[in-house]
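Quick one: structure tokens for this chain, please?
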Amino acid sequence: MTLDSEAGLRAAYNAHAGELFSVALRGLADRGSAEDAVQETFLRAWRAADRFDPSIGSERTWLFAILRSVVIDARRRQAVRAPVTPDPDSAAVVAVPSTRDDIDEAILGWQAEEALRRLSPEHRAVLVEIRLRGRTVAEVAAETGVPAGTVKSRMHYALRAFRLALEEQGVIT
């Protein structure tokens, strides 16, 4: 990634800004604040471009990690301000922020997706079928034509590789 160049920054913006904006909007419940959060995310990424390590995670994952910090900062600033009492006669819809942290959830999902991408296709398929889709070893073995012992072995090594990929990203220790 070359966020330190204008072309690299433009390419990253074109590739990820829309998705970053959607997540920021969910987290901040305000279009202007979400736009500011995306702009701040790319500014921070540009300033820290030399710290990006593609062996740890993708450009997308890195940008979402930055966005998470930006949104947390924005929420803290919003919490300090006095809440505006809506006019009871107004027909305006008041956006209520989610009670759970959608940003953290989204970031964790992207990091898990990145960890899954690092697995071999065979290991990824077994992990997805058994852990995410809730299928049994016997079902996966019958469908793929691979012996059940091999499916179990692939599952074991898939979990080890998945854990290692998450550790490399700093998700788990």
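The chain has seven helices and no strands.
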